[in-house]
Amino acid sequence: MKAPFPPRELAKVQCSLLTWYRHHRRALPWRASKDAYRVWIAEIMLQQTRIAAVLPYYERFLEKFPDVASLARGSQPEVLRLWSGLGYYSRARNLHAAAREIIDRSGGKFPRTLEAALALPGVGRYTAAAVLSIAYDIPLAVLDGNVARVLARVFAIRGDLRAPRLWRQLSDIANHLLAHSAPGDWNQTLMELGETICTPQNPGCAECPVARHCHARARNLAGKIPAPRRKPASVHTRIAAAVLRDTRGRTLLVRDPGAHDGVLFSRMWQFPAIEVSRQPRAELENHLRATLCLDGAPLSLEALPAARHGVTFRNVTLLPFLVRIPRLPKPPRSRSLPLDSLHRVPISSATRKIAAAAVASQTPH
Ligand code: SF4
Q1: In angstroms, rounded to a whole number, what is the distance separating the alpha carbons of residues 227 and 163?
Q2: Which 8-state DSSP code applies to residue 270?
Q3: Beta carbon of 17 within 6 Å of any ligand 1 atom
Q4: Would you give the distance in Å from CA 155 to the centre of its chain?
Q5: Nearest to 41 by CA among 67, 11, 15, 3
Q6: What's the CA gap between 214 and 85, in Å, rounded?
């Protein structure tokens, strides 16, 4: 690849960008130290998730699990409970499994080589490069959607940035630009630039520290790079869920009932639920009878306010029903607890929405 900047220009770009970062970076809690554990937790939480959403989770998580040893000792349900509401729960499961591997195989320290970092569950090329560069100053360049957008604009690279050929080109550019004297700061500089100035919409070119070197700006292409990606058509689904409630105000949660895919409820505790088509009430009642071994007495299903829930390209309408019942059944892989105490167990955002509708409607039995 032809060098995108000649050496002298590259040195100037690196110097002005690093100076900009050191003066303008936001004071985020994971930037307070170079502790590999804290950087790693932040990088995992920030995957597909906005900084504002991560902040309270990050603080709580570190309070409970201040180091890798405490995380490895913790139970998976406890880890999931602290992750509850942040989404993409495989991240939490992998984090927990990786902490145990770090204790067993790396003497309790996040590994220092790319190969060993990549062997950990849930650690891909981006996360490994971010942690190793920020925590240990190992010269590895990061490339994610944010950084790719900045680089594509600076060098006016058009097309689908995720296409393998372009991604490779951007990866070569990222490696070429990397400031070997300060790889962690350099990577964070590009991340910060993409998050605060070279944003997807309306980039702030007038205040951008790399504006003088930016080809997209010079050619008035900033608004056209990257080309918008074609989104998959959204799929609409309706899920009916039963909030069973006994005379003591307790409800029933189940695990993996198999009536729908595992994504929506993230394989955590959930209300009995089923994907429905035309007759949600009747379809849910049949499902309850079949899976909970209820006797033949008629069930009364009171419709609660519906809630909307989005999962990637799926639009889900949640249809909660309150089912008052004298005694809760006890199917395998189930548990009962007071309806207003669901925060004690790991549940997904969809389950929270259903619970909120039920709690809001609580009336004397
Ligand atoms: S000048 Fe504009 S388009 Fe170029 S990197 Fe800066 S913000 Fe992005």
Answers
A1: 12
A2: B
A3: no
A4: 30
A5: 67
A6: 39
The tokens describing 304, both together, are 């609660």
Q: Where in the chain is the domain with CATH 3.90.79.10?
A: 235-360
| 336 band by pLDDT with thresholds 50, 70 and 90 | very high
Nearest residue to 197 via CA among 159, 142, 153, 141: 153
Tell whether pTM > 0.70.
yes
In angstroms, the Cα distances linking 342 to 251, 285, 334, 359 are 9, 23, 13, 11
Asked if residue 210 has its Cβ within 6 Å of ligand 1, the reply is yes
CA distance 134 to 43: 11
Domain span(s) for CATH 1.10.340.30 in the chain: 7-224
- CATH code of 7-224, in short, is 1.10.340.30
Cβ of residue 211 lying under 6 Å from some atom of ligand 1? yes
Helix (H) or strand (E) holding 318: strand 314-324
- Is the CB of 154 within 6 Å of ligand 1? yes
The protein residue with its alpha carbon nearest to ligand 1, atom 2, reads 205
* 183-186: Cβ within 8 A, 24+ apart: 183/133, 183/137, 183/138, 183/139, 183/140, 183/141, 184/34, 184/133, 184/134, 184/135, 184/137, 185/18, 185/21, 185/22, 186/14, 186/17, 186/18, 186/133, 186/141
Which atom of ligand 1 lies closest to the CA of 215? 4
Q: Which helix (H) or strand (E) holds 38?
A: helix 36-46
> How does pLDDT run across 261-317, given as a tens digit for each residue?
556 787 889 999 999 999 999 999 999 988 887 777 788 999 999 999 887 777 899
CATH (residue range 235-360):
3.90.79.10
Strand partners, 270: 254
Residue of 16, 17, 146, 153 best suited for mutating to test ligand 1, as the one with most atoms within 8 Å of CB: 153
Amino acid identity, residue 152? Answer: A
Q: Are strands 314-324 and 235-245 parallel, antiparallel or unpaired?
A: parallel
Among residues 345, 354, 355, the alpha carbon closest in space to that of 82 is found at 345
- Is the model's pLDDT at 365 over the cut of 50? no
Question: Does the annotation count 43 as an active-site position?
Answer: yes
pLDDT above 90 covers a percentage of the chain that reads 77
